Amino acid sequence: MTKTQRMGWLSALLILLFFSSLACNLPGRSTQEPTELPTIPVTTQAVETLQSEIDAAEEALRNNQTVEIQVSEAQLTSAAAFELQSDPDIPLADPQIYLRDGQVTILANLTQNQIEVPVEIILELSANGQGNLEYQVISGQIGPLPVPDSLMDQLTSRLDQIIANQTAVNDSPFFIESITIGDGYMTLRGYKR
Asked: pTM for this structure?
């Protein structure tokens, strides 16, 4: 299993493919007041720690043990930043992922036609009782404007496809019992199917 597959739904779901679907039809010339959340530093250490935790969880699953993975804002933000840097076709930079009050808030700067526009998406994630990830897009903004319904429909369709593909690629080895998000951490608990 490759590193991308192991981090699969964590990095791909929350960042790469999600943002690439937004990048298609964005309006230009918008500005937004800066968010008052603290800046999360991007470090290779955070990515290495995340990878170690994923490796340990995979080993525990192979041994039929219950697994609890705790992912921090720094780990997700760093993983997203390095993924975005490795793909120059995605016009996003400076991602920040916040895990607060049961929600995932994703901030980034999108550059299109030499105009930089802040993007903010707020998601709620949960386990659906069948061991799979479920999400709900709470809100989306491009600059000060809400993401149009047609673009939000494209986004949710793309996220549905990502989740389905990730489940098929990984052969659904991890039954997600619960997902808890708060105080800068996302905790996933589950076991081998």
From this structure: 0.77
